[in-house]
Amino acid sequence: MVFTFEESLQQRFACKAFTDKEIQKDDLDFILEAGRLAPSSCGFEPWKFVVLSKKEDNEALSKLCFNQENVATASHNIIILARTDLQAKDEYARKQVARFCSPNVDKDKFQQVLNSYTGATNAMNEEQLYAYANNQCHLALMQMATAAMVKGIDSCMIGGFEKAKVDEYLRLNYPFQTAVILSLGYRKNEPKYKKQRLKIEEVVEYR
């Protein structure tokens, strides 16, 4: 560990360019495990993490992210995919909900539990399901970015990209769509500006 959790929150910034230094596998695994353990609504874990590390792949991805240098120079890019098979009819949703039931639960009881977990998603269309899953993906994103900084690894969260083209580049099919990208590596330059945040009394209200 390089930084404590609190130090990581202070040190992390949106890194705009990375050096050629590669992230070691143990550190990458630590970051991905942080994403795997992220919380999600109803425990659906509506995500998948696609990891790119080849220079040509990172450069190709950068072109779909409006030529952002951090994407091109990253040691690794983690593309977080949102999955939308979260309704009672979907095998994935049924499998996830089954984890919260006893092994010998009867069919009617399982259906009752399933309906309670998927009550909201059953009423959603595909666009709404993507938005719902996308929100959950950002929980995994933040957890991985913080975990990276614990190891002294810099990052930048990429929300600016041509989604349809990234989906096509990754050859994605239902139920997956690109949600957000995390570029990882070691900073080429120090931050230009001191971290700026609102004061605690400006964002917290006690009642």
Automatic annotation (TrEMBL):
UniProt-listed InterPro entries: NfsB-like (IPR033878), Nitroreductase (IPR029479), Nitroreductase-like (IPR000415)
Domain Nitroreductase: 10-186
Record carries keyword Oxidoreductase: yes
GO MF, any single term: oxidoreductase activity
Keywords: NADP, Oxidoreductase
Pfam families named among the record's database cross-references: Nitroreductase
Keyword Oxidoreductase: yes
Family per record: Belongs to the nitroreductase family.
PANTHER family, A to Z: NAD(P)H NITROREDUCTASE YDGI-RELATED, NADH DEHYDROGENASE_NAD(P)H NITROREDUCTASE XCC3605-RELATED
Name of the protein in its database record: Nitroreductase
Organism: Campylobacter avium LMG 24591
